[in-house]
Amino acid sequence: METMHELIPFAKEMLSQKPNRKMVKLYMLGSVLAFFGVVIGLVEAVCSPFTSQERLEEERKAAPTQEQMEQQQQNLILEKSKKPALMQRSLVTRQHAS
Asked: Where is the signal peptide (predicted)?
C-alpha cells in the first residue's frame, strides 16, 4: 500500500513534465520486464504443486533404502580388505632425499 502512495505522485510528476524518448523507452522496458516477471511468477505458483509432487515420487524411486546403503558399505569394506596391500617405502630409513 505504501508503494501505491509513492507511485501515484511519481506518475503525476512524470506526466506533468514532458519526458524525452530515452526515458519513455526505459520506462517501457522496465514495465515489460515487470509484466513478464509477474506472469512467470503466476505460472510458477500455479504449476508448483504438480512439479513438487512429481519430484517427491521421483526421489522415492531413486533414493536407496537404508538397507541398500548398509549393504553397499559392507561390500565396499569387503572389497578393500581383499585388495593386496601395496608395498610402501619406509620413510624412516631414508637419510636424505635422492
From this structure: none
